[in-house]
Design goal:
This protein has 70 residues and is mainly alpha-helical. It contains 3 helices and 2 strands, in the order ββααα. It has a two-stranded antiparallel sheet.
Length: 70
């Protein structure tokens, strides 16, 4: 999810994933109103210990990787 989808809070705040939203780990303080898709390209994903569930393939909608594998 965090590599290709964003979570949006009711106030428009953006998050890499729903887990980051619940942990109040916003995406660089941007809101849906002031971000452009091209500004998101190549950005770093905010990660934490909670990401281990997704990298193990046990996240809410994750495929198991926080980075692209060549």
């Amino acid at each position: 999810m965090c590599r290709d989808t964003l979570s949006v809070a009711p106030n428009g705040q953006l998050y890499d994933c729903d887990f980051n939203q619940m942990l109040d780990m916003p995406l660089s303080g941007w809101t849906i109103a002031d971000v452009m898709p091209e500004s998101l390209a190549g950005r770093s994903i905010r990660t934490g210990d909670h990401c281990f569930g997704c990298t193990a393939g046990k996240g809410s909608s994750c495929g198991g990787a926080t980075v692209a594998v060549p």
